[in-house]
Write a structure and sequence with these properties.
The structure is a homodimer of 259-residue chains. The first copy, chain A, is built from seven helices and twelve strands. Chain A folds into two domains: 146 residues, Jelly Rolls (Sandwich), CATH 2.60.120.10; 84 residues, Winged helix-like DNA-binding domain superfamily/Winged helix DNA-binding domain (Arc Repressor Mutant, subunit A, Orthogonal Bundle), CATH 1.10.10.10. The longest helix of chain A is centred in the middle third of the chain and has 26 residues. The first copy, chain A, has 259 residues and is α+β, with helices and mostly antiparallel strands. In chain A, α4 crosses α7 and α5 packs across α6. The two termini of chain A are 32 Å apart. Chains A and B meet through β6, β7, α3, α4 and α5 of A and β6, β7, α3, α4 and α5 of B. Chain B binds a DNA duplex (30 and 30 nucleotides) through α6.
Chain lengths: 259, 259
DNA sequence: CGAGTAGTTGACATCTCTCAATGCCGGTGG
DNA sequence: CCACCGGCATTGAGAGATGTCAACTACTCG
């Protein structure tokens, strides 16, 4: 299914040097002993494969709130695994506004968009102080040697990303503001839950404007929709603090279309 | 970046047998002698890699207009390369309406969404009589043996698909009806051009409703927007026949947001 | 304390959707 | 051959959702 990319936008980019090399923190990490191992890259791996992964010892890198991990057009070298913190990925529109294409929390992988062209097609920015593992993509593919279990893992990850985006397209293409925001909140809830945090109460790391950009609506509509959910006793919202008071109701809102 | 998938949709699928096995047409194809080789899977390959690809001789399959190549939930076995004709991919919404997620013409590959879960997440249907090559995914990955050039090709294809969807999200998230339709027409134009057909005049294989679903708008709005383009002397539209009379103007329309 | 950022809310404009009528075309059957 | 039908596209009128612009508040940071 390739090639449906938008035409002719020819992002008139000023060529520029890549971002400064990662200020390599000395610390390195072994996947098998990471508390995120069941969510992250090693998920589903064992034995020799996992050993091979462990032998790689990925460098960690810290990204302060507001700083970028990589920018649009940077050379693609690493897949990054989020250890802690939150990132957002975004594309620049021709007029300079940004379109947020995803948010990433601990255990999630970022940067697979770079494989196609050897350069990143999006920028990724920290929403709070964040730490990532930098996984050299070339190593990953070369080292996989004989049975390419690793390649398989990567393929699956990429396919999952395709699924994710497909669902997001569906959301953008055919849902209204309430359904979109409900889907967004439920999705966050589920991801926090999977990481052992509360799935009923959490803190948003992104602004209303960033949520709006991601969901294809204005920040005012995001705000109003939060207020509406609160009035419907689905959520309690205080700025960026969210408490889900009626999970089922929220799901209904989202699945309004199921009859 | 996985895991942002929509939550809780849990597509309540009735389990059902997979589609009938492809009525294997006897004819098989050798990639290196295919007229689509520079657009399709073998693109960029040569020497031993291409020989290896040739040794596989993929079976062809015909799909009549309106018939499905695979359905949502079918076991994922093949990547399909379009030889001739047009396909659409779509997801089912909970309420039974479809969301079109892509159109595919000759030389394009379909079905990479299945890698993640071993089952297809979307259905793919022929918009006209269509012929595809069925590429067994398992072969592709196993056979790549030593240097996994093939795996690399697949990864690149998948990454390209991620880019494509990212751009589509951008379109759905932050463009109005005119910009969306202009982007759509320009994209088709470019793809036809790359295949040696006219990039100024072509026949749409999809209905207004399908275009609308793909672009996140109603069929009426698609129709009205075509009419508007015609009044602005950008296009001549006669049902499904399109003639671009002002390519630059159309690009401007699409890039309205620049500066 | 003042400035800046983020969020909320209101009033209004506008775009797109919804519903409905009509036209066009190709196929089918009398 | 013609009438009728169904599917697709076009067009109009009105409704509704969301965007735009603007005011105001609460907080944070110098």
């Amino acid at each position: 299914m390739p090639a449906v990319s938008l035409p002719a936008v020819a992002p008139v980019r000023v060529l520029r040097e890549d971002a400064p090399p990662p200020p390599a923190t000395a610390s390195k990490t072994q996947c098998s002993s990471c508390h995120l191992r069941d969510l992250c890259l090693p998920c589903g791996m064992a034995g020799a494969d996992l050993d091979r992964l462990d032998s790689m010892r990925f460098a960690r890198r810290k990204v302060k709130a507001g700083e970028t991990l990589y920018r649009e057009g940077d050379r693609f070298q690493f897949i990054h695994a989020v250890r802690s913190g939150t990132l957002k990925s975004s594309l620049m529109l021709a007029d300079g506004r940004e379109q947020v294409s995803g948010f990433h929390i601990a255990g999630e992988l970022v940067g697979l968009d770079g494989v196609a062209q050897g350069r990143h097609a999006s920028a990724t920015t920290a929403l709070e102080d964040t730490e990532v593992c930098a996984i050299p993509y070339a190593h990953l593919t070369s080292l996989s040697g004989g049975a390419s279990v690793m390649q398989h893992v990567i393929s699956r990850l990429m396919s999952r990303e395709i699924l994710r985006e497909g669902k997001l397209m569906m959301l953008l293409g055919s849902m209204n503001a309430e359904e979109r925001l409900a889907a967004f909140v439920l999705n966050l809830s589920q991801r926090f839950g999977a990481r052992g945090y509360s799935d009923r109460e959490f803190h948003l790391r992104m602004s209303r404007a960033e949520i709006g950009s991601y969901l294809g609506m204005t920040l005012e509509t995001v705000s109003r929709t939060f207020t509406a959910f609160q009035q419907q006793r689905l959520l309690e919202v205080d700025k960026r603090h969210i408490r889900i008071t009626d999970l089922e109701g929220l799901k209904d809102r989202f699945e309004v279309r199921v009859h």
